[in-house]
Design goal:
It is built from ten helices and 15 strands. It has helices at residues 21-32, 56-68, 106-109, 116-123, 136-139, 158-165, 182-193, 205-212, 254-257, 277-291, and strands spanning 7-15, 38-44, 47-54, 75-81, 89-93, 112-114, 129-132, 142-144, 174-177, 199-202, 220-222, 224-225, 232-233, 243-244, 251-252. Helix 7 links the parallel strand 9 and strand 10.
Length: 295
């Protein structure tokens, strides 16, 4: 018996004015109804964003459809997963396709894009401030050498962090990165509005970097957290060795799995003290049903 075909996973976004986001949402729901896709597509007045998975044919059809709707400049990348990385497809209407919470103009004044090779050359300079714009739990899985971790729990916290930690360094060169590039469209635009002149970001984010750069030439340490069932990916975008705590969502390293506070599906060292015995019992029952194929 031949092995089932792997799922093609497409990560995409494009900042583009959408006159009627609700109509676009409805149209995408109708188009994708019978494609067998899973994942999430976000629609907002400022564009689209999403990570979806399905058969090779279904992903090709979705990309062609989006291009027919005028999304011709998508930041788009593909990888594979041996299993369905999401449970179902959701097409959601949002105010922003990535929520910063303050108005910026990414289409007009985002920072300078860098290819992976250009990124390596720039970030090797110790005078360049390299900033990881992701949430702190994502950083735990891996990051670039020498990168500053703002320690944020959501992107909404990033503008305040900039005001507190980068003010007065407008003359410095700032290099920013995130998972797929979309956060940096806004974070670099934010810095440009605040008077920073030399602002750069890694085009396509960590995912494109890991796809194109060999491990020998890489400045990235660890794996990249992804928001799907793979948990992490490594160089070549192959599924990594990460596991997620299904109680708090924290990516777990091998030593985390050895902690006496770790119980699969119930708790880890990061959240064991934050949930009640009743909550743990509910998580334990959920895990039992999952292991038994009931979920």
């Amino acid at each position: 018996m031949s092995a089932p075909a792997p799922y093609t996973v497409a990560a995409l976004y494009e900042f583009r004015s959408v006159d009627d986001p609700a109509a676009l949402q409805a149209g995408l729901r109708e188009f994708t109804r019978d494609l067998g896709l899973c994942g999430t597509l976000l629609v907002a007045p400022e564009g689209i964003n999403g990570t979806v998975a399905g058969s090779r044919e279904a992903i090709t059809a979705l990309r062609a459809h989006l291009e027919s709707l005028g999304f011709l400049a998508m930041e788009y990348k593909e990888s594979e997963s041996p299993h369905a990385p999401f449970k179902r497809l959701k097409v959601r209407l949002k105010k922003e396709i990535v929520t910063l919470g303050v108005p910026v103009e990414p289409r007009r004044q985002a920072g300078t894009y860098l290819s992976p090779a250009e990124w390596n050359a720039l970030t090797a300079d110790p005078d360049v401030i390299v900033v990881d714009t992701r949430n702190r739990y994502e950083v735990q899985a891996g990051t670039f050498q020498g990168a500053v971790d703002p320690g944020i729990d959501s992107f909404r916290e990033f503008p305040s962090w900039v005001d507190q930690h980068l003010a007065g360094q407008e003359g410095k060169r700032i290099a920013m990165f995130c998972t797929g590039g979309i956060r940096c469209e806004k974070s670099t635009s934010l810095l440009r509005e605040k008077g920073f002149q030399e602002v750069y970001h890694l085009q396509g984010g960590i995912l494109r970097y890991l796809e194109e750069v060999s491990q020998e030439d890489s400045r990235y340490q660890g794996e990249c957290f992804v928001f799907d069932g793979r948990v992490t990916v490594g160089h070549g975008l192959t599924p990594g060795g990460g596991e997620m705590c299904h109680s708090c969502g924290w990516p777990l390293r091998p030593d985390d799995l050895q902690s006496p506070l770790f119980e699969r599906g119930v708790s880890c060292a990061h959240c064991a003290d934050t949930t009640t015995p009743a909550q743990k019992a509910a998580f334990r029952e959920r895990q039992r049903q999952y292991d038994g194929g009931l979920l």
